[in-house]
Amino acid sequence: MSDKRSIDSLIEIMAALRDPESGCPWDVKQDFKSIAGYTVEEAYEVADAIARGDMHDLRDELGDLLFQVVFHARMAAEIGAFGFDDVAEAICTKLVSRHPHVFGDLVVENEAQLQHAWEQQKRAERDNRQAGSSASAPGILDGIAAALPALRWAEKLQKRAGHHGFDWPDVGPVFSKLDEEIAELKSEISLGMNRQRIADEMGDVLFACVNIARHLDVDPEQALRACNRRFIERFSIMEALLHEEGRDVDSASLEELERYWRRSKKISAKNANDANP
Questions:
Q1: Element (H, E) at 219
Q2: Residue 171: what are its φ and ψ, rounded to 5°?
């Protein structure tokens, strides 16, 4: 094996790990399904490193994610399906074909035209994949992975539908839709606690929230992750305030916790302002 540390080295290392005779027993026994969860986990760890602004961790996590790509490509090569070079070739071809304004003669004057051209190109790709197939004609929402996190899946469904005219012109009507969905959720709760109908209406509320985020150009997944981090920070501050007085969360009443929570929010906001003057 070469001493260089490049993609070629990584491919060679992966082949050695998967060698049935001399490889790592754990790596050898894996298949696409058993590795899929790790692939998703590594992508989330990349996102977390970005959110924390940690470039050292980002470098390492990107390496881990790249290893997952090489792992899948190696398993595919072992069954004669495709190899890493085929993966690289496919994405190169796709990027060039989807950017005719960079690699071709298409001229776009604004982002709206760019988005329209992007969606048209992806639709053409879906149509080409469908050509010759006995399956029914592809739908507009086909090809959006259902395995995405629910917020991201909802956002992509809405964006795809919006590119084909199924959308409100601005955020105002979406707030009205959210009010409507909340009212329907309250109605179901008052009617007798049908758990499935309540769950359905709760889903509609969340879907409307994603729609608002999309119209405001806010990433709903990242917005919720940031909110989770703020909650952890504020809860930790609240715990520290209680510990300073020889108490803990379990010993405080709900009213007391609410007072400590308000104090923790003020401290958290001051910390954020101090960090970003």
A1: none
A2: -80, -20
Alpha carbons 130 and 132: distance in angstroms, whole number: 6
Q: How far, in Å, CA of 115 to CA of 120, rounded?
A: 9
Would you say 117 and 101 are in contact if contact means Cβ atoms under 8 Å apart? Answer: yes
**How far is Cα 139 from Cα 127, in angstroms, rounded to an integer?**
10
Q: Is residue 261 part of a domain?
A: yes
Which own/partner pairs from 266-271 qualify as long-range (CB within 8 Å, at least 24 positions apart)?
Answer: 267/237, 268/230, 268/233, 268/234, 268/237, 271/233
What does the longest C-alpha to C-alpha distance in the chain come to?
73
Question: Is-above-0.85 flag for pTM?
Answer: no
Q: Please tell me the total count of domains within the chain.
A: 3
Distance CA 11, CA 261 (A): 51
> What tokens were used for 2?
């070469």
Which of 215, 238, 264 finishes a domain? 215
pLDDT tens column, 138-193: 788 888 888 888 999 999 999 989 988 899 999 999 999 999 999 999 999 999 87
69 in the same domain as 43: yes
Burial of 250 (0-12, 13-18, 19+ CB in 10 A): exposed
Rounded distance between C-alpha atoms, residue 81 and residue 165, angstroms: 39
Same-domain status, 199 and 271: no
Q: How far apart are CA 22 and CA 224, in angstroms?
A: 45
Q: Which residues of 65-85 are buried (b: 16+ CB within 10 A; e: fewer)?
A: bebbbbbbbbbbbeeeeeebe
> CA angle at residue 173 from 140 to 155, to 5 degrees?
40
Instruction: Give whole-number Cα distances, 28 to 36, 193, 244, 270, in Å.
Output: 15, 50, 53, 52
Q: Is the pLDDT of residue 129 over 70?
A: no
